[in-house]
Amino acid sequence: MAKKTAKQATPKRLKITLVRSPTGFNRTQGKTVEGMGLRRIRHTVELLDTPETRGMIHKVRHLVTVQE
Questions:
Q1: How is the chain split into domains, by residue range?
Q2: Sign of the dihedral through C-alpha 56, 38, 61, 68
Q3: d(CA 67, CA 14)
Q4: What are phi and psi of 61, to 5 degrees?
Q5: CA–CA separation, 35 vs 40, rounded Å?
Q6: Could you tell me which CATH number the domain at 13-67 has?
Q7: Would you say 45 and 36 are in contact if contact means Cβ atoms under 8 Å apart?
Q8: DSSP state at residue 20
Q9: CB 56, CB 13: distance < 8 Å
Q10: pLDDT tens for the chain, residues 1 to 68
């Protein structure tokens, strides 16, 4: 008889909004914003709360706002 597995908790998601243009900053910061899927100012995306996403947010924290 197979054991029942515990339900996987749904991963936490973060809402990230671009509030400043990456133009004029380091080029890698612009690539990070692009990699997060942000296209224009006031564009919001939802990403999973992972260490990789947190690292990207930390790199461009002066350009974005984050809501949980």
A1: 13-67
A2: negative
A3: 6
A4: -60, -20
A5: 13
A6: 3.30.1390.20
A7: yes
A8: S
A9: no
A10: 666 666 677 889 999 999 999 999 999 999 999 999 999 999 999 999 999 999 999 999 999 999 98
